[in-house]
């Protein structure tokens, strides 16, 4: 059995590998006055209670990323951005709807990398006047091109019912169930895609 265990691994080794999944919670806005840090912290708090992965908030604002292709731009954060994304096995995107789409900062951050995104799973938590639904749909198309498999369950937060005065995040109780249902899909998909990377 020694040779077969070396070749295929053991069930225990497989389970240990699977318990070490890293899921990045990506804050998709860099605007002043943004509320994505509140939403991201809430998602992380819910996720950490599950104990099924290592969840980390990844804030695009922490990385210096010039506009892709911009001459003379300060790209000093590009290597750190690449490293942070490459270390993840899956993602939860915190997505704001601006002008019926995702933010320019998120699109730029997605475009900055290629292979680091490939063959990983992702969920979306969006917000806006209609729950950020249009931004989420645009993001799904982008993720398909980057070989990110997005899950079906999609918590959509309303600026009218889940935020007080549009700024203080106070989600309805049902939203926590939605986040957990989304993670119930992200985790097994991330495990499955781990096997082909």
User: What portion of residues belong to β-strands?
Assistant: 15-25%
- Which structural category do the helix and sheet elements fall into? alpha/beta
Residue-averaged pLDDT, rounded? 92
Poorly predicted regions are none
Task: Please give a quick description of this structure.
The chain is α/β, with parallel strands linked by helices and 197 residues long. It has helices spanning 2-8, 11-18, 36-50, 78-86, 104-111, 133-145, 173-194; strands spanning 22-27, 54-59, 90-96, 120-128, 148-150, 156-158, 163-164, 168-169. The two termini are 26 Å apart.
Describe the structure.
- The chain is an alpha/beta fold and 197 residues long.
- It is 42% helix and 19% strand.
- It has helices at residues 2-8, 11-18, 36-50, 78-86, 104-111, 133-145, 173-194; strands spanning 22-27, 54-59, 90-96, 120-128, 148-150, 156-158, 163-164, 168-169.
- Strands 1, 2, 3, 4, 5 and 6 form a 6-stranded parallel beta sheet that branches. The protein has a two-stranded antiparallel sheet with strand order 7-8.
- α3 (36-50) links the parallel β1 (22-27) and β2.
- The longest helix has 22 residues, at 173-194.
- The radius of gyration is 18 Å and the shape is globular.
């Amino acid at each position: 059995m020694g040779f077969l265990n070396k070749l295929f691994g053991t069930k225990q080794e497989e389970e240990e590998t699977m318990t070490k999944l890293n899921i990045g919670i990506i804050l998709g806005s860099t605007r002043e006055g943004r509320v994505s840090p509140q939403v991201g912290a809430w998602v992380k708090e819910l996720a950490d209670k599950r104990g099924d992965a290592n969840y980390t908030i990844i804030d695009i604002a922490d990385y210096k990323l010039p506009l892709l292709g911009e001459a003379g731009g300060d790209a000093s954060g590009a290597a750190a951005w690449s490293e942070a994304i490459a270390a993840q096995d899956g993602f939860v995107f915190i997505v704001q709807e601006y002008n019926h789409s995702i933010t320019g900062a998120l699109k730029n951050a997605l475009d900055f990398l290629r292979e680091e995104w490939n063959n990983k799973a992702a969920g979306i938590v969006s917000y806006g006047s209609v729950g950020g639904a249009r931004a989420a749909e645009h993001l799904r198309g982008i993720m398909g091109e980057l070989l990110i498999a997005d899950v079906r369950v999609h918590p959509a937060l309303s600026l009218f019912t889940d935020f007080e005065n549009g700024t203080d995040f106070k989600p309805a109780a049902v939203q926590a169930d939605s986040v957990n249902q989304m993670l119930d899909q992200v985790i097994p998909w991330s495990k499955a895609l781990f096997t082909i990377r």
